[in-house]
Design a protein that fits this description.
heterodimer, A: alpha+beta, Jelly Rolls, Arc Repressor Mutant, subunit A, three-stranded antiparallel β-sheet, 10 strands, B: alpha+beta
Chain lengths: 247, 83
């Protein structure tokens, strides 16, 4: 058990373990995956729209996002990803990328050949089920983002996003006591919420003024959790964070 | 196309309140807001708070000054009739 804390793929083990308890054999199979580990700079394009992927990218450290750029350089961020996530897992079955995957911060990632992931999921159907479940939760998060994009006010949208980012990080042991890393810019928040930088700036100031949050040194402190979730009408059901035995 | 500006104060739930309504041929086409100190690097610029008709209401560009903003608005309006 203690060895997991030093194994390079520990973030993936931790993520899988937050969903279903792994057997020793499964854990070993994950640890033995033939990965290529790379340190990437911030704002690095890992895989681009139109490319054919032959490997999956596991985030070991840092943040990444999925996004798409349209005319005049307008960028929409679809999702944020943290250690333990495999943001391009779907490329295993649909290798032609229909969006970009980029780092937001300096990051360490592990590239796992599709063949190895396929072999792992064939040998251990319960791991395949956890991966499948993860893509379903992904879809649930997209639905919630759609509601925020279409129906929530700028204030409620950002409040909702902060609750989500905190809980996602807390679930894998990267946050606690209503304090979590938020190593992204106001521009990133604007691109993820379809708001202008100006609107994001105004809302953040309003939140600070109301004593709901503090933002300093890439850290988000939620000073009034109950008030923030009330303001955002936040219901964490869609994150499906409770540990579930996968059949 | 001549534009007409009318200063107003606008409630934005922020320090940004100085604003100009922009009219073209009598029609309200845009609202520009002067960005306050809270915007740091963008402070002092003019922000397209809202656009109507041919002025894209989803985009929110900022401009160095009112002249630049009006040039951009004229480009968006082109020669088309405002309504």
């Amino acid at each position: 058990m203690a060895s997991n804390f030093t194994h390079p793929l520990f973030p993936l083990i931790r993520k899988l373990d937050s969903i279903a308890t792994l057997t020793d054999e499964e854990r070993q199979a994950v640890e033995n995956l033939p990965v290529r580990i790379r340190a990437l700079r911030a704002r690095h394009e890992i895989v681009r729209h139109g490319e054919k992927a032959s490997q999956c990218c596991l985030i070991l450290e840092g943040w990444a996002c999925r996004s798409k750029v349209i005319s005049e350089g307008k960028r929409q961020i679809f999702s944020f990803h943290i250690a333990g996530d495999i943001p391009d897992l779907q490329s295993l079955h649909i290798p032609l990328m229909d969006h970009d995957l980029c780092t937001l911060t300096q990051a360490t990632v592990a590239f796992i050949p599709h063949e190895a992931v396929r072999d792992l999921t064939m040998r251990f159907p319960s791991i395949a089920a956890v991966f499948w479940r993860d893509t379903l939760v992904d879809a649930a998060i997209f639905r919630e983002w759609m509601i925020s994009m279409g129906r929530r006010t700028a204030f409620d949208h950002l409040a909702h996003l902060f609750c989500e980012l905190y809980l996602k990080q807390q679930a894998v042991g990267l946050a606690g006591e209503h304090r979590c890393p938020l190593p992204i810019t106001q521009g990133d928040l604007a691109d993820a919420t379809s708001l202008s930088n100006v609107h994001v700036n105004r809302v953040l100031k309003e939140m600070r003024g109301k004593g709901l949050i503090t933002l300093r040194s890439n850290t988000l402190v939620i000073e009034a959790w109950d008030e923030l979730i009330r303001a955002a009408e936040f219901d964490a059901t869609y994150l499906h964070l409770q540990k579930r035995a996968v059949p | 196309m001549s534009l007409h500006l009318q200063p107003v104060r606008v409630a934005t739930s922020s320090d940004d309140s100085e604003s100009q309504l922009v009219f073209a041929e009598g029609f309200l086409v845009a609202m520009l807001v002067h960005l306050s100190e809270q915007h740091e690097d963008d402070a002092g610029r003019w922000f397209l708070e809202a656009g109507f008709g041919r002025i894209p209401s989803r985009d929110h560009p900022t401009f160095l000054d009112l002249d630049e903003a009006q040039t951009w608005i004229r480009q968006q309006l082109g020669n088309a009739y405002v309504s």
